[in-house]
Amino acid sequence: MVRTHGYPRAVTASALDSVDFALDRGSPVPLYYQLARQLEAAIEHGALAPGNLLGNEIDLSVRLGLSRPTVRQAIQTLVEKGLLVRRRGVGTQVVHSQVKRPLELSSLYDDLEAAGQGPTTQVVRNESVPASADVAAALGVAEGAEVTILERLRSTHGQPVALLCNHLPPDLVELDTGRLESTGLYRVLRSAGITLHSARQTIGARCATAREAARLDEREGAALLTMQRTAYDDTGRPVEYGTHIYRASRYTFDFQLLVRP
Length: 261
Known about the structure:
CATH topology of the largest domain: Chorismate lyase
Number of helices: 8
CATH class of the largest domain: Alpha Beta
Distance between the termini: 46 Å
Oligomer: single chain
């Protein structure tokens, strides 16, 4: 159902029937922007799922009671964000929602699950290795000491989102591969009685290597977001050092900034 000026306008059966648009023609906010924002919200909240067809621009303009240029501009905004794609002879199709993650000490798995993103995990590596200098410094162990390395590929809706590499102190917790493919690392730590208290985190960006691009279904050289994090328990002990990469086309960090008094 579409409402403009507060009056309902029926639309024909399509994926849009599950979305309640409210377009205010009297608002100073351009109609194309209102439509783009409401379509984006519908994709993020699952009302419009990956693969849903929205029809072509002419159909959409009739359904929504908007001009074709207005609809075209709204669609182009979401095409540029990677949320929609135009297919010749088919129309406009939902690709995926972008993962928006709050910048706090939380598990990617928990955040994706809470957002209805249907996370899945493939454990690529789970073994003991000698600690490099960086890992040793982060975990407070001697260089060359044995630590556990855990590499996982995290996906949503069948599409890879992140490649996660974590190092943990030896004998901290049993890391069963089967369990790690059905839940998040932080849940495993919490269930072992480890209370996560704080973390130091650095966010950056770089281009994908050939190996990373193949894992993440991106082209070599594509933009990636990076995160390094050392997490501590409530005694101040470092319990995890993570070096993660995320597809910039599918992933963002959410910040809330406060003015310092």
